[in-house]
Design goal:
CATH superfamily of the largest domain: Outer membrane lipoprotein wza domain like
Distance between the termini: 76 Å
Mean pLDDT: 82
Number of helices: 6
Strand order of the largest sheet: 7-6-10-8-9
Helix content: 25-40%
Radius of gyration: 31 Å
Order of helices and strands: HEEEEHEEEHEEHEHH
Number of domains: 3
């Protein structure tokens, strides 16, 4: 009987340990999930300051903000570049967070900030974009990468800037991607309609941070697949041949190295 009780106690102890371990693991996983969640993008493109610059421009880091108080122009005026923390220096007030504000919002905000220091105040603002607003073109183009977003730009102009490959780019299936974690938009656009029939339906007006992907044609995809299959084989074969012939003529080995061989 005592042996049975001892075995039962040990089994109960093992079970309790297992339960505690599982509980701790579950708690750890929950904490880790929360940590991951706080780093995930919750709005827009992933940038901290986003909007629609064509409707009303907004302040980004690196932009230049010119401001003047029409009632107190000698005391309150200046031209400031928005710092990495999203602030500018304003007389009397000091560092003021301006990143993300539209022009109208910023005028109202700065007027409120200066109100305690002057009887009458009315701030006017101009925003000069510092080149931080961009769009992206990638895929079968010769000049991929970000391009400055100047405002009124269309898909045709964007693709033309990126110089699509003459025989490798499938311009009939260009993708315009407006990224968002909740409601992304992907438009398949036939860019060739513009010059084949004059139809401008697919000549979409772009927004900042739009991604344009120019896919390969079917033949280009096949060529890339074949190249991917045979390049490793030819690379190994080349190295083997270098090694074989190096035994007969050792100078080949050193020439191969100088010319980019193994």
């Amino acid at each position: 009987m005592p042996h049975s009780v001892a075995r039962g106690s040990r089994a109960l102890g093992v079970l309790l340990c297992a339960c505690v371990f599982l509980a701790l693991a579950s708690c750890s996983a929950t904490i880790e999930d929360k940590r991951i969640l706080q780093y995930l993008n919750q709005g827009g493109f992933g940038k901290r300051y986003v909007g629609n610059a064509q409707e009303q421009n907004y302040v980004s880091i690196g932009d230049t903000v010119q401001f003047i108080d029409t009632y107190n122009p000698d005391e309150v005026s200046g031209t400031e570049v928005v710092d990495i923390d999203g602030t500018i220096l304003v007389p009397e007030v000091g560092a003021v967070w301006v990143a993300g504000y539209t022009r109208t919002e910023l005028e109202s905000y700065l007027t409120q900030k200066l109100a305690p220091y002057y009887v009458d105040t009315d701030v006017k603002v101009k925003i000069k974009t510092g080149g931080k607003k961009v769009f992206y073109v990638m895929g079968q183009v010769r000049r991929a990468g970000p391009f400055p977003y100047t405002g009124d730009i269309t898909l045709f102009e964007a693709v033309l800037q990126a110089a699509p490959e003459e025989f490798g780019a499938n311009l009939g299936r260009v993708r315009v991607i407006r990224a968002d974690p909740r409601d992304p938009i992907v438009i398949i656009a036939d860019a060739t309609e513009l010059w084949t029939s004059g139809d401008s339906t697919y000549n979409i007006q772009l927004h900042e941070y739009d991604i344009i992907y120019v896919p390969p044609t079917l033949l280009q995809s096949v060529a890339d697949l074949v190249s991917g299959l045979f390049v490793p084989v030819t690379s190994v074969l080349r190295d083997v041949l270098y090694t074989i012939f190096a035994f007969d003529d050792p100078t080949l080995l050193f020439r191969g190295r100088r010319n980019g061989g193994f």
